[in-house]
Design brief:
Elements lengths: L1 E2 L2 E2 L2 E2 L2 E5 L18 E2 L1 E4 L1 H12 L8 H15 L7 H6 L1 H17 L12 H12 L6 H12 L7 E6 L9 H12 L3 E4 L11 H10 L13 E6 L2 H15 L4 E4 L5 H9 L15 H11 L7 H9 L7 H13 L6 H21 L3 H18 L11 E2 H18 L5 H20 L3 E2 L1 H12 L16 E3 L9 E6 L16 H9 L9 H15 L1 E10 L1 E2 L2 E2 L5 H9 L3 H6 L1 E3 L2 H4 L2 E4 L2 E4 L14 E3 L10 E2 L1 H9 L1 H9 L13 H19 L5 H19 L9 H24 L3 E12 L5 E11 L5 E7 L5 H8 L3 H10 L9 E5 L5 E4 L9 E2 L5 H20 L2 E3 L25 H4 L8
Parallel strand pairs: 1-5, 4-6, 4-7, 7-8, 9-15, 9-18, 10-13, 10-14, 14-15, 22-24, 25-26, 27-28
Antiparallel strand pairs: 2-3, 11-12, 16-17, 19-20, 21-29, 23-24, 24-25, 26-27
Length: about 900
């Protein structure tokens, strides 16, 4: 590998290849075709600054940008009188204000600015000078360059043989870069312009294009000889297929691929065909290890965001002790909140799991005590901690303590230098240093999130995103080419939108600074440099330039790269000529034989197969499926509605994949209200309408914290208040209705069991049982639903569930008990026609209990007999038939998870 070193106390002579974008991996690297090279460095300006600092003894530890912003913000806060130019934005978002003003300050320092330069120019320049004069700021790149320039004012012998400049357009350099190069030349360093000589055929399309870009030719007309090709693809898949086929036929050491950010789809296609991946340079800030600190801090604010805590518990890696993670996550899914009964049970089960582990490891009492203290500390940090006001802020001491714990945890996991955990350790250290540098006692939520945003930066590359060893070379952009290759392939040749920071300087400010010899970068110079770098893809090609341009990327439409306009101007003045340069990648998929650069690619057509049709009748071995010893009203309703669903769920025990997510709001509110009502009647069975409604609201507020925490979030505040008002009103209506109907509540959450058919049992849990004025028991079911029509229809026809509840309560087969629904959202009460219930609440129709049970038993026996002989029916699959009329139970297709198996959505008439 290339090496720059000291021999016998002296630097060896160095040759530097300098290019604007050569700080990233370039082609060729310093090795070129050699096995080892000494004294040659291929760098950009950042690398050049680093080399010079090392040679001059100016190198030192670098401080993160987050710490510098914090230091700058501290000074801004000290000077802020409330009437400063930056005061309005500073009071709203102090961190981003400080970051922007620091960026402006650094740009001025790169131009040679010092605060002692006479004040003037503008109010903003005066403010920056005042802040600079009082700030204690760690050096950034601008300060390092300033120190370097100051050192180079004194003549010094540098061990640099020469600097070869790749970029022809030195007028596009920033002023400080021009000054730095001039200072090197004044110190005797030889500067040469790198000569591009790809030795391509001057009469080819490629050679003509190179001469046009060099200014040696005005324009030309393409021949379509294949030396310049635009490969168009309707989708990224076709583009990847083309590149893979080309590499299989022509890939060699003289091939360079400009990958851009890369593509997961392309890498997968390459690997499926036995080729090495190009890699993906797509850093993500949501890598699990980088989410630990943001998620952890998000659980410290009032009101708690329970969804963020759930995310923290479900991370693949987490500082939350292992045996507590899933258990607490399941508790949150069941009852979204902190401190509920299931939460306490989850904590107890977690400690039991650790005790069992310690028993198996035969740990001594002292070891157990130490380990438990360590786990308790981590558990307290993650789930059992104090909460803080987002606006008032969190104590800096608490933030630093959390960062220290996360840093220690990450360090203990990074035993082999694992980059993921090293990144987490660095992130926590940066946040800790930044909050300490602010000099504040409390940090607001917004401020802390801004600090973490800066500390996280662009994030980390994916685990499978590295470039794999291959015969061809890979670079990220055309500006990283400084040597020639036979073939250059520009993957994803499309326009990528890039945001640019707006220029903060007015013309008068620029002119004032220029009067003092301070030159800022020209407006739009960054885009001009980018445009200039595109030409290096052409200059670095000897034989063929292939530009692969998909029309859609990640499902989104994209347009061809703007460099194609340069190519068209040079080679294709008309549309017919342009067509000579274009190939369609879909031809590989649509044609059996395609020629790529004189190599034939043969394709074999894959036989098309349709998805299997929907199946109504399924067959299993006879005697395999038998009735269960115990059924519930829900399972009985399932087998009556769809025997296939019952078979898959209860006989085959086929369950949905575990998806630990919070319930939707309707289900969550319904769960909370059921617990409120249960607690309400546990405390007393006799409430006045006013007392009951008031106590229900108190219980709602208490239970919301433990099992309805999402309702406490600001975005759900209106929903929570509306629910409270609805509950207050409907509870008053409930107790008024109970009084008007002379009904008294006896028990809630009642479990009953009864012998049914051939010794089989039915076990059910009833929401509420009560007693009418005549002493008859009654089943009352509470529903949190917007519309009552569905439940009214069940009373009009047959409610299997309520009929079975009623049957569980009766003493004799002919006894008729009232059943009813109370709608918690509207306060509506509806009941079966029973003499103990006032007629205004009656729902006409319905079965008698004796007729209902006879119909249920008959259909249940019929279903079970069919299952016993192996006939399983998917009742929702009609296969072109009309649905049968008068069915006892409608197929439960609307909420069924097994539709992909029965094929309901693939149903076709037969």
């Amino acid at each position: 590998m290339a090496e720059i070193r000291i021999i016998e106390g002296r630097w060896m002579m160095v040759e530097i290849v300098l290019g604007y974008q050569l700080d990233s991996p370039a082609y060729p690297d310093a090795l070129g075709n050699s096995e080892a090279v000494s004294g040659l460095a291929v760098v950009g300006f950042s690398g050049l600054v680093g080399i010079l600092e090392t040679m001059l003894g100016l190198a030192g530890p670098q401080v993160s940008e987050a710490v510098r912003i914090a230091q700058w913000e501290q000074c801004l806060r000290q000077l802020d009188t409330g009437s400063e130019l930056y005061s309005p934005s500073f009071s709203t978002d102090s961190w981003n204000t400080a970051r922007e003003l620091l960026r402006r300050r650094d740009e001025l320092v790169l131009a040679g600015w010092h605060p002692h330069i006479p004040h003037g120019g503008s109010s903003w320049l005066t403010v920056l000078a005042r802040v600079e004069s009082c700030a204690t700021l760690s050096p950034g790149l601008a300060d390092r360059v300033a120190s370097l320039m100051e050192r180079l004012k004194t003549p010094i012998s540098l061990p640099i043989k020469r600097v070869r400049v790749v970029n022809e357009h030195e007028d596009l350099w920033e002023p400080w870069q021009t000054k730095l190069m001039a200072a090197l030349v004044q110190n005797g360093i030889v500067k040469e312009r790198y000569s591009w000589d790809p030795q391509s055929d001057p009469d080819s399309d490629l050679g003509q294009l190179q001469r046009v870009l060099d200014g040696r030719l005005n324009c030309s007309e393409a021949q379509g000889d294949g030396s310049v090709v635009l490969v168009q693809a309707a989708q990224e898949w076709d583009a990847a297929d083309y590149l893979v086929s080309w590499l299989q036929a022509h890939g060699s050491e003289e091939t360079v691929i400009i990958r851009g950010s890369g593509s997961q789809l392309l890498d997968q296609t390459l690997q499926r065909n036995g080729l090495p991946a190009l890699g993906v340079n797509n850093p993500s800030r949501i890598r699990s290890v980088l989410q630990i600190l943001p998620l952890l801090f998000s659980t410290y604010w009032e009101p708690i965001e329970i969804s963020r805590l759930l995310e923290l518990l479900l991370l693949p890696v987490s500082p939350v002790p292992f045996h507590f993670r899933k258990k607490l996550a399941y508790a949150i899914v069941q009852q979204p909140g902190i401190g509920s009964l299931v939460w306490q049970e989850a904590l107890a089960e977690g400690w039991k799991a650790y005790e069992a582990q310690w028993d198996a490891e035969q740990k001594e009492t002292s070891e157990r005590r130490t380990e438990k203290e360590r786990l308790e500390k981590r558990l307290s940090m993650a789930v059992s901690h104090a909460y803080f006001s987002p606006s008032y802020g969190m104590p800096v001491t608490s933030i630093i303590g959390i960062c220290q714990q996360i840093g220690q945890w990450a360090t203990s996991r990074a035993v082999n230098g694992e980059p993921l955990f090293m990144a987490a350790q660095q992130q926590s250290a940066t946040v800790m240093d930044a909050v300490a540098a602010l000099g504040s006692e409390f940090i607001s939520r917004l401020q802390l999130e801004r600090i973490m945003d800066t500390a996280t930066g662009a994030g980390l590359d994916g685990e499978n995103g590295e470039t794999q060893a291959a015969s061809w070379q890979v670079v990220e952009g055309p500006g990283q080419l400084w040597g020639a290759a036979d073939t250059v392939i520009w993957w994803n040749f499309y326009r990528a939108d890039s945001s640019r920071m707006p220029d903060p300087w007015t013309e008068s400010e620029r002119q004032w600074l220029e009067n003092y010899g301070l030159l800022l970068p020209q407006k739009g110079i960054a885009r001009q440099r980018e445009s200039s770098s595109w030409e290096q893809a052409v200059k670095g090609t000897r034989k063929r330039l292939i530009l692969i341009a998909p029309s859609r990327v990640a499902g989104q439409p994209v347009s061809t790269h703007p460099f194609w306009d340069h190519v068209r101007y040079a080679l294709a003045p008309t549309a017919p000529v342009e067509k000579k340069l274009i190939q369609d990648a879909a031809n590989l998929r649509l044609s059996q034989r395609v020629v790529l650069q004189d190599v034939a690619v043969l394709r074999e057509q894959i036989e098309h197969k349709n998805l299997p049709p929907a199946i109504r009748h399924w067959q299993v071995p006879e005697g395999l499926i038998r009735p269960r010893p115990e059924e519930s009203p829900t399972s009985i309703e399932t087998v009556l509605g769809c025997p296939l669903k019952w078979t898959l769920q209860y006989a085959a025990h086929l369950r949905d994949a575990e998806i630990l997510s919070l319930p939707d709001m309707n289900r969550l509110i319904g769960t909370v209200l059921h617990h409120v009502i249960h607690q309400l009647f546990t405390e007393s069975l006799r409430w006045t309408p006013e007392e009951g409604s008031v106590r229900a609201i108190e219980l709602f507020d208490e239970w919301t914290v433990q099992m309805g925490a999402p309702l406490l979030e600001p975005r759900n505040r209106l929903l929570k208040e509306r629910t409270r008002e609805q509950l207050k009103r409907t509870m008053r209506m409930l107790f008024t209705t109970l009084r008007d109907c002379s009904l008294s509540v006896d028990q809630t959450e009642v479990e009953l069991e009864k012998e049914w058919i051939a010794g089989h049992k039915v076990r059910g849990r009833l929401d509420i049982t009560g007693t009418t004025a005549s002493g008859a028991p009654m089943v009352l079911d509470f529903k949190w639903a917007t519309f009552s029509k569905k439940y009214r229809e069940r009373l009009e026809k047959l409610s299997v569930q309520l009929s079975l509840y009623q049957w569980l309560l009766v003493k004799g087969p002919s006894q008729e008990l009232p059943i009813g629904y109370f709608m918690l959202r509207t306060g509506e009460f509806m009941a079966s026609a029973h003499p103990d219930i006032p007629e205004r609440y009656h729902v006409p129709g319905g079965f008698s209990l004796e007729d209902a049970m006879r119909a249920i038993e008959s259909l249940y026996v019929s279903r079970m007999n069919a299952l016993n002989i192996g006939e399983v029916t998917a009742t929702g699959v009609l296969l072109g038939e009309q649905p049968p009329s008068g069915v006892l139970v409608d197929p439960p297709c609307h909420f069924c998870s097994y539709q992909t198996l029965c094929g309901l959505n693939r149903e076709v008439p037969v």
